[in-house]
């Protein structure tokens, strides 16, 4: 079977990685790159740089990756859908729910694969975590807490931290727990002189009953990417920056220290850090996109799922503005 002809729109900080990995994925051939801003990272090679989405479509592509700023996602995606091109857009799906829904509808109507690059689902630590939750290694899930903090990326100018970063945590939480959000409440801060929030704290509850908490900001001098899932048998800690997964089991040894044993909660048990294969998340994601286009089993994040993550992020921002919790 001939390789899928791939086009890439945008070769900025994320697009440059797509360019590298698309060249390495079996069954895919990167044949065209477009970016109105040129090639700042020098990744085009012999392909050259096309000026816009229309030129990219004109190159005769089967699939496309859209890695331009969020406000341009809708225009590019709708043109690709009209041209019959299967498409993966970077997260968030769009700048607004209305735009995202138009994208969902366009790809569903055309019978095309429309996907969103929620790459954290493909992180080896989170994939191993989900496998272990499905195997009932934790029992009932009580709480999922995430921390995604780091310095401000000057390249992000069109959305705030809720849509750009918290959308990761929203999507991975619902995916890991296999449960949608029921309720959210949030608070935001604006400390860097921009119109969009640069800090958000979200709390809420999933349909399964688990409590969720997300601390997300662009104001921390250190970078942190941590997901903690606490449940009936202990707690999993996934560090998605390193791909590590650790399990803290509830203790089974009776405590004899009176000041500690008087507490009727759990006690500390064994701590296990798991060893497992750690493949690059972007490669796994693009392989899933390829498989979806070929009609094979896959774990691609459909646009409808990306739209749900955007809905929760927008609800969180609305909650922060109104001071009220929002039911989803």
Describe what is shown at a glance:
This protein has helices at residues 15-22, 53-58, 73-82, 97-110, 124-134, 161-177, 258-261, 281-293, 303-322; strands at residues 4-9, 28-34, 63-66, 86-90, 114-117, 141-149, 181-189, 199-206, 211-217, 224-231, 234-239, 244-250, 268-273, 326-327.
Question: What are the key terms here?
Answer:
328 residues, alpha/beta, Rossmann fold, Dihydrodipicolinate Reductase, domain 2, 2 domains, nine-stranded mixed β-sheet, five-stranded parallel β-sheet, 9 helices, 31% helix, GFO_IDH_MocA-like_dom, Gfo/Idh/MocA family oxidoreductase, NAD(P)-bd_dom_sf
Q: Could you characterize what this model shows?
A:
- The N and C termini lie far apart (44 Å).
- Helix content is 31%, strand content 27%.
- The chain is built from 9 helices and 14 strands.
- The chain has 328 residues and is of the alpha/beta class.
- It has 2 domains: 4-119 and 283-300, Rossmann fold (3-Layer(aba) Sandwich); 121-277 and 310-327, Dihydrodipicolinate Reductase, domain 2 (2-Layer Sandwich).
- It has a 9-stranded mixed sheet. Strands 2-1-3-4-5 form a 5-stranded parallel sheet, with helices on both faces.
- The mean pLDDT is 94.
- Helix 4 packs antiparallel against helix 9 (303-322) and helix 6 (161-177) packs across helix 9.
- It is globular, with a radius of gyration of 21 Å.
Any idea what the shape is?
globular
Q: How would you state the average pLDDT, rounded?
A: 94
CATH level-four homologous superfamily name of the largest domain = Dihydrodipicolinate Reductase, domain 2
Oligomer: single chain
Task: Specify Rg, calculated over alpha carbons.
Answer: 21 Å
The largest pleated sheet is described as:
9 strands, mixed
How many domain modules? 2
Structural class: alpha/beta
**Poorly predicted regions:** none
InterPro entries: Gfo/Idh/MocA-like_OxRdtase_N, Gfo/Idh/MocA_Oxidoreductases, GFO_IDH_MocA-like_dom, NAD(P)-bd_dom_sf
GO molecular function, one term: nucleotide binding
Keywords: NAD
Protein name: Gfo/Idh/MocA family oxidoreductase
């Amino acid at each position: 079977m001939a390789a899928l002809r791939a086009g890439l729109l945008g070769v900025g900080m994320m697009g440059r990685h797509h360019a590298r990995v698309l060249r390495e994925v079996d069954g895919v051939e990167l044949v065209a790159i477009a970016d109105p801003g040129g090639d700042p990272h020098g990744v085009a090679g012999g392909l050259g740089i096309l000026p816009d989405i229309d030129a990219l479509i004109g190159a005769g592509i089967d699939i496309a990756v859209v890695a331009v700023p969020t406000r341009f996602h809708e225009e590019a995606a709708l043109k690709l859908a009209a041209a019959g091109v299967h498409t993966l857009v970077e997260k968030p799906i769009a700048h607004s729910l209305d735009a995202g829904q138009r994208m969902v509808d366009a790809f569903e109507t055309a019978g095309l694969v429309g996907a969103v690059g929620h790459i954290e689902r493909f992180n080896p630590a989170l994939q191993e975590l989900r496998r272990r939750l499905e195997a009932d290694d934790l029992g009932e899930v009580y709480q999922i807490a995430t921390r995604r903090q780091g310095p401000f990326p000057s390249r992000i100018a069109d959305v705030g931290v809720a849509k750009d970063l918290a959308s990761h945590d929203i999507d991975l939480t619902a995916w890991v727990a296999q449960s949608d959000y029921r309720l959210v409440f949030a608070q935001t801060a604006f400390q860097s002189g921009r119109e969009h929030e640069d800090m958000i704290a979200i709390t809420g509850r999933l349909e399964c009953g688990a409590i969720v908490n997300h601390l997300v900001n662009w104001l921390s001098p250190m970078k942190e990417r941590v997901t903690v899932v606490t449940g009936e048998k202990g707690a999993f800690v996934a560090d998605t920056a390193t791909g590590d997964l650790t399990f803290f089991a509830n203790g089974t040894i009776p405590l004899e220290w009176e000041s500690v044993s008087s507490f009727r909660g759990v006690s500390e048990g064994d701590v296990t850090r798991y060893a497992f294969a750690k493949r690059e998340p972007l490669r796994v994601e693009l392989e899933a996109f390829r498989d979806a286009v070929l009609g094979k089993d896959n774990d691609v994040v459909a646009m409808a799922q990306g739209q749900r993550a955007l809905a929760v992020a927008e609800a969180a921002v609305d909650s922060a503005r109104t001071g009220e919790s929002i039911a989803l």
